[in-house]
C-alpha cells in the first residue's frame, strides 16, 4: 500500500519501499490510470528547491519515490517507514512481473538501449519489449516530436521507462504525459547505463552505507562534481527541518 506523502524541503516524497512501489505500479497499470512516477534522491530534492517548476512536476507525480540513502534517512528521521527505491532495482523488478506488461524504453544511446534490452530479454525471457527510442541530444523539431509520440503510441506500451537523466526526464514526462497512451511513465535516471553495463554501479555495501555518491563522483568527476557539491547544504537543510526549525510545505502537490 502506498505510504504517506511527506514534504522533504518542499518535495512530497512517499514513505514507501521497493516492494510497496512495485505493488502500487502494478495497481496503477491494472486500473489504466494515466500518470507518471519520479525518483527523488538528494540531488533531485536540491534541484527542486532551486526550481519551482521542477518542484511542481515532482509534487504532481502520482508517486515520488525515495531513491537515495540520504532521502531514506531523511524520511526515517522524520518518523516514517521507508526503504530505498533504487531505479535499476525498480526497473528489473517491474520488468520481471508475470502480468505480461508491454515495455517501451526511451533514452540513452541506441547502443546502450540495445545492450539493455538484450540483457533484459536474456534474463527475463517472458519480457515484452515493444519498442525503444533514443532522442537526439539536440532539440527535436515538430515533425520529429510527432513521430516520436506516434511511435510510442503505436507500440501500445503499458509502461514507458524514461532514462534521460534528471531533470530532463521529469520535464519530458510532464510535457508528454497527456499525449501518450501508455498508462505509466517512470523516470529512472542512469538505470539504462547501469543495467546495460555502460557504466559501473557502486558496490552494494557502498550503497547501503550512503557512499554511492562518492563512487559515482570518482568515476565521473567532471560531470557530477556540481551535483554532489550541494550535498553538505542538503544535510544542513535536512537537519534544520528534522529539528523543526523550518517547515517546507509541498503546496503544489495533488
Q: First CA to last CA: what distance?
A: 18 Å
Stretches where pLDDT falls below 50 for ≥5 residues? none
**Biggest sheet details:** 6 strands, parallel
Radius of gyration: 18 Å
Strand content: 5-15%
Averaged pLDDT: 92
Structurally, the number of domains stands at: 1
Task: Give the ordered list of helices and strands.
Answer: EEHEHHEHHEHEHEHEHHHHH
Morphology: globular
Helix content: 40-55%
Strand order of the largest sheet: 4-3-8-7-5-6
What structural class do you assign from the helix and strand content? alpha/beta
Enumerate how many helices there are, as a single number: 13
| Total beta-strand segments | 8
Describe the structure.
The chain is α/β, with parallel strands linked by helices and 254 residues long. It has one domain (5-135, 144-242). 50% of the residues lie in helices and 15% in strands. It contains 13 helices and 8 strands. It has helices at 18-31, 42-50, 52-60, 69-77, 87-95, 110-123, 142-154, 168-176, 191-196, 204-208, 212-219, 221-229, 231-242; strands at residues 5-8, 11-14, 35-39, 63-65, 102-107, 128-133, 159-163, 184-187. The chain has a 6-stranded parallel sheet with strand order 4-3-8-7-5-6, sandwiched between helices. Helix 6 (110-123) links the parallel strand 5 (102-107) and strand 6 (128-133). Helix 1 (18-31) crosses helix 5 (87-95), helix 2 (42-50) packs across helix 3 (52-60) and helix 11 runs antiparallel to helix 12. The longest helix has 14 residues, at 18-31. The radius of gyration is 18 Å and the shape is globular. It starts with a strand and ends in a 12-residue tail after the last helix.
Amino acid at each position: 500500500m502506498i505510504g504517506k506523502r511527506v514534504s522533504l524541503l518542499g518535495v512530497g516524497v512517499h514513505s514507501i519501499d521497493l516492494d510497496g512501489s512495485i505493488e502500487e505500479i502494478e495497481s496503477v497499470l491494472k486500473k489504466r490510470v494515466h500518470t507518471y512516477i519520479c525518483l527523488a534522491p538528494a540531488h533531485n530534492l536540491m534541484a527542486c528547491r532551486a526550481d519551482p517548476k521542477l518542484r511542481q512536476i515532482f509534487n504532481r507525480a502520482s508517486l515520488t519515490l525515495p531513491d537515495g540513502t540520504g532521502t531514506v534517512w531523511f524520511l526515517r528521521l522524520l518518523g516514517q517507514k521507508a526503504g530505498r527505491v533504487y531505479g535499476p532495482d525498480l526497473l528489473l523488478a517491474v520488468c520481471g512481473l508475470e502480468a505480461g506488461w508491454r515495455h517501451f524504453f526511451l533514452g540513452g544511446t541506441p547502443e546502450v538501449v540495445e545492450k539493455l534490452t538484450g540483457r533484459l530479454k536474456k534474463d527475463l525471457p517472458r519480457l515484452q519489449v515493444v519498442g525503444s527510442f533514443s532522442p537526439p541530444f539536440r532539440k527535436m523539431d515538430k515533425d520529429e516530436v510527432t513521430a516520436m509520440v506516434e511511435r510510442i503510441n503505436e507500440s501500445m506500451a503499458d509502461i514507458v521507462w524514461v532514462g534521460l537523466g534528471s531533470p530532463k526526464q521529469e520535464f519530458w514526462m510532464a510535457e508528454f504525459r497527456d499525449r501518450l497512451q501508455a498508462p505509466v511513465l517512470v523516470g529512472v535516471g542512469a538505470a539504462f547505463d547501469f543495467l546495460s553495463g555502460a557504466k559501473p554501479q557502486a558496490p552494494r555495501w557502498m550503497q547501503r552505507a550512503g557512499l554511492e555518491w562518492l563512487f559515482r563522483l570518482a568515476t565521473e568527476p567532471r560531470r557530477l562534481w556540481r551535483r554532489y557539491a550541494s550535498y553538505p547544504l542538503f544535510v544542513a537543510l535536512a537537519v534544520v527541518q528534522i529539528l523543526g526549525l523550518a517547515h517546507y510545505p509541498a503546496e503544489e502537490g495533488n
